[in-house]
Specification:
The complex is a heterodimer of chains A (about 800) and B (about 120). Chain A is α/β, with parallel strands linked by helices and about 800 residues long. Chain A is built from 25 helices and 38 strands. The chains are: A alpha/beta (about 800), B mainly beta (about 120). The complex binds flavin-adenine dinucleotide.
């Protein structure tokens, strides 16, 4: 059988993925108008904050032919072929229309100069236009309009929202909820105009029907969508009066060999505009193509606003015989439940400012309430709601609580990530992730946070204990809050916490015994037990004289030299007793420790920047040096790397760093949470067009918040993912926890008390005494260390490994 | 403060290593004893242990540079290369009991740490 799919959006993807997974043996061709395979449109807005198009794009299942950037312009039902704009003719046995919908642009004068918000190309165009603009207007105050407004705000525009109805999100919330929502949105600095329509657009100006004029360089229409049913109409298929390709419960159109799925379909008299029902339709059509009898029986229209830091959600029916409302205007919370006339069956609900009922109560729609409606609303999360096994937990992927429980009990999933992988729950909009966590907990999976057998606490908890109680020794911490005498896991963690808090020498007193060998010898151990030495070269900038000193030291001590990825020079093959002599030569020439051995700031790489480069727009070298000097010696849960690029060409590869800075015409963009290594990850844009001062302040807080709250050996990439970029922005840019002054002070203390560990060790005979190969024979080098020569330099002779 | 292991003291040769107070609690020190490399540890409760300095997993002579601590009641040291943990009492690797470090008797005489390797 030869299946042809028209349109390559999320619904088409789900269809072909399901066919492939169920072992379909015929041929499948997907023809899509966009230049790339389907991508996660629900997550489209994250494209503006730096998620790449590749990251959003779904993989094309094996064995499927695609024809991209071409549009189907005609269907010949008699001859069973489709014809594309480029003239290609494709025969089919079964045709599936998955053409989605198009944004509705109201017919007002000047509308042709405005943007819509649906594809990656739309967002590129909006971003380009925003560079020159100061203000932006979003027409439409629904779910998508508010998402678009938040995006414009993120692009640095003074943002307005215009909504014809009397309140924001008129389809999801009632008047009371709308009033609370409006407060939240205005609190974010967005200007809201409700109950007023558009008159016309002029160059740089939006005129409203009530005469208001808004100066704005960017106008985005988000005033609803229309199903793309033009092909179906032209082919004579039945379409609804208000649009949409009419289908039966098996997703079949009026022509039995043509199906329609997704936002273009009119199923049971409804056109659905959310991804969950679209996926359900795709699965039904796939089943039918394979000869099954699946039916699409309508779907939940629950919705949750993803951005803006405001929780808004609605689920089920938004009307009912009885309703119960909870309103707290002070904290901006509004919750309402709709119930049947006997007050026993839950029909639906609205929440603004606190969406916990969305996750806990949505699965109970149509069922008996587990408690009185008032209690459910007032008690918030303290009432535990026990869901039945057939209750849907993830509506996007149609996963029930029973399936999640089976994933835990039968497939051995022990954390949310494993459940997601096993069931697909939580992989689309993510709103059910808290519910997954609570099901795991109710199944008795305890997510242990104990660091090791000596401490029941996690690293962030130990950090707080040490900070709040002023504990400055390992002995006291383990005596009061742990057991035993520690190990190679907890000791370095505590050493790092104490270093972050007190900033003394890492080899002082009892702390010396806590350090891993690298920190203990302030150098990096190599496979034969020798160490490598990396002096700091801030920003990768170095004078010829200093380069010569490094060469001379390497030559005189017979060390192997290698340029590192962090723009510095690594000197290998030093025995412990040579380390102080090597440091002495380096320190005398003005070098200091590069902390290559520590869970600490390593390097801040840079490109050559505006001083030399004809493309550079900012002095990236100067900024890299300033940042490296500011954060040098800062101990953290894991190593920290950074880079500064002087223009958008990004030669310093800043987006692979824990914090990366890329110059813009007017300042700096700050990216966080990047990683090379085992699990590469591009850093996310945290804030843009920052001044020098704003940049440093944002990084100060980012680093200190990371140091306080990350787990042991958790790189910033995993940490940012676990807390979420929006939350991070709230905390460090908007001070939502009220801790920024404290974070700033902690960084100021670090900067003020920094000293070079190598020099301090050279100045302390007590510490120097440890740098011997043998305590009983200080002058004798370790005879087991042997080198051979390769390409003109030393190389360790492999020690034979024979156990015991 | 004195730990004597193996056959009765007096019949073996003791080699002086260093003053006891030179050892940092819970940190090892390497010694060269009759051509053999020995890692000497002083625990937080002032017990003294000596094991072979060669890490059997990596082949490098680095055991003295591992982190000492406890596992349950057992005093242990973790190899600095790949963190396998060894008992300081028996030398046996707790993560792989088929592998062990040699152990050596120790004692303190007039404030000096002594080890016997015969
Ligand atoms: C910014 C944004 C945020 C969203 N957030 C959410 C959310 O939080 N929750 C939620 O449930 N939903 C959300 N949605 C809606 C969700 O994205 C849609 O429900 C989903 O994309 C529908 O998928 P589809 O494949 O049916 O249609 P589409 O995604 O529109 O895909 C149809 C594709 O077909 C192509 N096409 C059309 N005609 C032709 C032709 N003749 N020939 C070839 N190709 C053609 C189109 O170019 C398009 O690529 C959001 C949408 C947007 C834009």
């Amino acid at each position: 059988m030869n299946v042809v799919v028209v349109g390559y959006g999320p619904t088409a993807h789900r269809l072909v993925e399901t066919l492939a997974a169920k072992g379909f043996t015929g041929s499948i061709t997907v023809i899509g108008e966009e230049p790339r395979p389907a991508y996660d449109r629900v997550a489209l807005t994250s494209y503006l904050s730096g998620t790449g198009a590749e990251a959003l794009t779904y993989p094309v299942p094996g064995g499927i032919a695609t024809r991209l950037a071409d549009r189907v312009t005609a269907v010949d039902r008699e001859g069973r072929t489709v014809t594309t704009r480029s003239g290609h003719v494709q025969p089919y046995d079964v045709l599936v229309l998955a053409t989605g919908s198009a944004p509705f642009v109201p017919p007002v004068p000047g509308a042709e100069g405005a943007f819509v918000y649906r594809t990656i190309e739309d967002l590129d165009a909006i971003r380009d236009a925003s560079r020159e603009a100061e203000a932006g207007v979003v027409v439409g105050g629904g779910l998508l309009g508010l998402e678009a407004a938040d995006a414009l705000r993120g692009l640095g525009l003074a943002t307005h929202v215009v909504e014809m109805a009397g309140r924001l999100m008129p389809r999801q919330v009632d008047e009371g909820g709308g009033a609370v929502l409006r407060k939240h949105v205005e609190g974010l600095g967005i200007t809201v105009h409700t109950g007023v329509g558009l008159d016309r657009l002029e160059d740089g100006r939006v005129l409203l029907a009530d005469g208001t004029a808004i100066e704005a360089g960017v106008v985005v229409f988000s005033a609803g969508v229309r199903p793309r049913d033009e092909l179906a109409r032209q082919a004579g298929l039945e379409v609804g009066a208000r649009g949409g390709v009419a289908v039966d419960e098996g997703m079949r159109t009026s022509d039995p060999s043509i199906y329609a799925v997704g936002e273009c379909a009119l199923a049971g008299g409804v056109v659905y505009g959310l991804v969950a029902p679209c996926n359900a339709m795709a699965e039904v059509a796939a089943d039918r193509i394979l000869g099954g009898r699946a039916v699409f029986a309508g779907a939940d229209q629950s919705a949750k606003l993803k951005l803006l830091g405001v929780d808004v959600a609605s689920f089920g029916e938004l009307s009912g015989a009885l309703d119960v409302t909870y309103m707290d205007p002070v904290s901006g919370v509004y919750k309402k439940l709709f119930v049947s006339d006997d007050a026993r069956t839950l029909l639906g609900g609205i929440c603004v400012g606190d969406a916990t009922p969305y996750a806990t109560l949505r699965p109970l729609v149509g069922r008996e309430l587990p408690a009185a409606p008032g209690d459910l609303l007032f008690a918030g999360t303290s009432v535990t709601v026990e869901l039945p096994d057939d209750a849907p937990v993830c509506t996007c992927n149609n996963v029930t609580r029973g399936q999640v429980r089976a994933a835990v009990a039968e497939h051995g999933c022990t954390d949310v990530a494993a459940v997601k992988k096993c069931t697909r729950a939580g992989t689309t909009c993510g709103s059910c992730v808290p519910a997954l966590a609570s099901i795991l907990a109710s199944e008795g999976v305890v997510q242990s946070k104990a660091l090791c057998e000596h401490f029941d606490h996690s690293r962030p908890e130990l950090f707080d204990i040490a900070r709040v109680r002023g504990i400055s020794t390992f002995s006291r911490l383990i005596a009061e809050h742990g057991r035993g005498r520690g190990c190679d896991i907890c000791k370095p963690v505590v050493a790092s916490i104490l270093a972050s808090l007190n900033n003394g020498h890492v080899l002082e007193g009892e702390r010396a015994a806590l350090q891993d060998t690298n920190d203990h010898f302030l150098a990096n151990i190599q496979k034969n037990g020798t160490y490598s030495v990396v002096p700091r070269i801030p920003g990768g900038e170095i004078t010829p004289e200093k380069l010569i000193v490094i060469g001379e030291v390497a030559r005189d001590f017979g060390l192997y030299t290698k340029i590192t990825g962090g723009q510095r020079i690594d000197l290998f093959g030093a025995r412990v007793e040579q380390l102080p002599d090597i440091w002495k030569r380096l320190v005398e020439a003005g070098f200091e420790s590069g902390h290559a051995y520590g869970k600490a700031l390593r390097t801040v790489k840079s490109c050559v920047g505006s001083a030399w480069c004809r493309y550079g727009v900012q002095d990236s070298v100067g900024m890299a040096i300033a940042l490296e000097m500011r954060y040098r010696g800062l101990r953290s849960p894991h190593k920290l790397k950074s880079a500064v690029s002087g223009c958008a060409r990004e030669c310093a590869e800043a987006r692979s760093k824990d914090f990366g800075i890329i110059a813009t015409e007017t300042g700096w963009n700050l990216y966080v949470g990047g990683n090379g290594g085992f699990t590469p990850r591009h850093a996310d844009l945290l804030a843009n067009d920052l001044s020098d001062e704003e940049l440093v302040r944002a990084i100060d807080r980012f680093l200190m918040f990371y140091i306080r709250t990350a787990d042991r050996l958790q790189r910033t990439s995993a940490w940012v993912e676990s807390i979420g970029l929006d939350y991070l922005r709230e905390v460090i840019l908007r001070d939502s926890l009220g801790i920024c002054a404290d974070l700033d002070a902690a960084m100021a203390r670090h900067v003020a008390t920094y000293f070079d560990e190598w020099r301090a060790t050279l100045d302390d005979p007590e510490k120097l005494r440890r740098f011997v190969s043998f305590v009983n024979a200080p002058g004798i080098p370790d005879p087991s260390i042997v080198f051979e020569t390769e390409r003109g330099q030393i190389k360790p002779v492999l020690v034979e490994v024979g156990r015991s | 403060m004195t730990a004597v292991q193996g056959i009765a003291a007096g019949t073996r040769t003791w080699i002086p290593i260093c003053p006891y107070t030179d050892l940092i609690p819970e940190r090892g020190a390497a010694a060269l004893v009759r051509g053999r490399q020995v890692a000497v540890f002083r625990t937080h409760d002032d017990r003294l242990f000596a094991v072979g300095n060669r890490d059997p997993f990596s082949g490098a002579h680095v055991m003295s540079r591992g982190i000492a601590g406890t596992r349950g009641e057992e005093p242990v040291v973790a190899a600095p290369m790949h963190k396998q943990t060894f008992s300081l009492i028996t030398g046996v690797c707790l993560d792989d009991p088929t592998t062990a470090l040699p152990t050596y008797p120790t004692r303190v005489t007039n404030g000096t740490v002594e080890v016997s390797v015969e």
